[in-house]
Amino acid sequence: MTALDRPSARERRKERRAHADYTGGVYGSMLAATVVIGAGTLGSFPRLELVLLLLLSGLAFWVAHVHAQLFGARLAQHGLDRRTVLHVCRDEWPIVKAAVPPAVAVAVSPLLGLDVAGTLWLAVSVAVAGQVGWSVAAARRAGATGRQTVLTASVNLLLGLVIISFKLFLKH
Q1: Intra-chain end-to-end CA distance of the chain, in Å
Q2: Does this model's pTM top 0.70?
Q3: CB of 140 closer than 8 Å to CB of 20
Q4: Cα 55 to Cα 31: distance, rounded to the nearest angstrom
Q5: 138 CB-near residues (< 8 Å, 6+ apart)
Q6: C-beta separation of 27 from 5 below 8 A
């Protein structure tokens, strides 16, 4: 293969985006929502602590998923090389990305004049909206029909509402 036959960096990035799997974002958003719900049951808390908890939880679960991918099915099928490791790390990164919007919501909540309860509702709402958004992105990327996309968005909204019901149930 000559240099002219190899795809350019731009073409390789476009190809990676075309095959991206955003299901980790759905998972990461659900994780973020449950972290917010769990933190909210503990009463008052420093906002910075919740921001860090959201981001660090996302990173911890990202590492767990990368590990499971690399040392689960992949190791049995292929040897590990740098390219494979980077590929898996990139594929699982939406788990971390999904924690960022709820963390930002918590960080900006004082600017919106929100108290602790308002901050929690904003963060969990952002996480659930992200969960639905990631599911739609995953469905569209997979070539789902409009009906399938609406179905996955509805299921993820329902799951988000179940998580919100946990907040209502766990409230003192």
Answers
A1: 67
A2: yes
A3: no
A4: 11
A5: 21, 22, 23, 25, 26, 152
A6: no
What is the distance between the alpha carbons of residues 58 and 78, in angstroms, rounded to a whole number? 27
Phi and psi, residue 78, nearest 5°: -140, 155
Report yes or no: 33 and 160 within 8 Å, Cβ to Cβ. Answer: yes
DSSP class of residue 70 equals I
* Residue 147 and residue 122 in contact, taking contact as beta carbons nearer than 8 Å: no
Tokens (6 digits) for 39? 């933190």
CA distance 36 to 19: 31
What are the pLDDT digits (tens) for 101-160?
Answer: 999 999 999 999 999 889 999 999 999 999 999 999 989 988 999 999 999 999 999 999
